[in-house]
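Subgroup meeting minutes
Present: P.N., E.W., G.H.
Scribe: E.W.

1. P.N. recapped why we're keeping a running log of single-chain structure predictions: easier to compare across weeks, and new members can see raw inputs and outputs side by side.
2. G.H. added today's entry (539 aa).
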Amino acid sequence: MTTDESVNILLVDDQPGKLLAYRAILDELGENLIAASSAREALEHLLRTEISIVLMDVSMPDLDGFELAEIIRQHPRYQKTAIIFVSAVRLSDMDRLKGYSFGAVDYVSVPVIPDLLRAKVRVFAELYRKTREAERLNRELEERVAERTAELQQSTGRLMELTSRLQEADQRKDEFLAFLAHELRNPLAPIVNAASIMRLKAGADPELNWCREVIDRQASHLTRLVDDLLDVSRITRGTITLRSEPVDLATVVGAAVETCRPLVETRHHELSVKLPPQPVRVLGDTARLTQIVANLLGNAAKYQHDEGRIEVGVEAADGEARITVRDQGLGIAPEMIPKIFDLFARVGRPQYRPDEGLGIGLALVKKLTELHGGTIEVTSAGVDRGSEFVVALPLIASSTASPTPLPAAAEDRFSGPPLRILVVDDNHDAAESLAKLLSLGGHRVMVAHDAESGLALALAEKPELLFLDLGMPGMDGYELCRQARARGLTEARIIALSGYGQSRDLQRSKAAGFDGHSIKPVDLSALMRLLAEHAVRRV
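Output recorded in log:
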């Protein structure tokens, strides 16, 4: 019902004259007037028609007004209908109370005053219309709320389903990246081993030496790309862990420079390193801090023409240690500066450097810097005007003790007392190349290409050092290690070799009894340190 619709008013009186009088008085209201000459007839109208107001005489034969009002109120539809009693008899307060108890809401005395009756009926009619309108609006609101709730539930269900799919896709992505890294590292291992053998047996032919350097350099570059991909995945999932210790930034910069020196020299850049006379120490993961500086140096070397200039500086001020890497290269357009650290952001021009990379290096630098509680900023005067990156890290007191490294003599040793070494890997090239590389140090190296024959060799020859591939068919490297330990090789040092290097892989290899876990490919310097550590253990 709207506020313009007429309401039904039931007029009940056993005297026809009074009914005519009520009609005459109320007709101008424009409502729908229904007359009933008895209580029974009134009830019939009430059952057939929705009545808004009942105007009834108190004194009627059969059922009087009080009794009719009581019957009306018992019907669920008419519990709130307005009932106006008309009485020619002066009513006492008790009579009025009785009427109210039966459902009367008002009284009109005879003789009826037309204006007063019209006013009362008009008020109740408007109240009825507004009540109905409010009820209609409430119903519509409830329906809309129900619709919106249903839509929200559907949206929530779709969002949960989408979230589940995204989580599943993310998990599959991580699994794919781990598998991709494993598959890339397996062929990289023999390539790196072969390049190391060529380095140790370098001849006088400059072209062969150049070929070896190219292989070594490109294999190292591909290895870093694989590592960066996995690091981005680890940081995204929050699974990367820092091994923090007091670190002198001079050590970090020195290691980063050595990492990037082949690229810098290949492009004939001038590299300037400026370090303060006093140590500048921070609390951090040496490998990750080196990775930060090496990525910045690598970018500086790639994004400028040959024979450019790169400046690296370290300083301490205001409780911060700052590492600055400045170049004279490609530069950054102003609109790209806010996006430079975004994952997969690539601001270079393909014709400038077609090998500019995957766009993950700077994103990784920013994440690793933030994990160390630091910040990184970049400035550039514009395209072709160079760039400057500044990494700021919390400074620690210079009195904090630095970690004690292995003696330099031990780190540089590749030969030494000959060892009995067993290499087990189903990849023939990887196994044979590692064996040849180890043999150059004077060691006796045995090779097996499956776990079963590897276990037989280990039990027969009792090697001091074992390198075991993990992903072999049949018995894998984990089971081979467990079997070897259980059958007497308790003193041997067993190192896992794998293309998988996530934290769960390291935990699993440790639980199987391995002494170490090396990720393929193992470069020559890492292999030298590993042999040196074993030599120190024997002393």
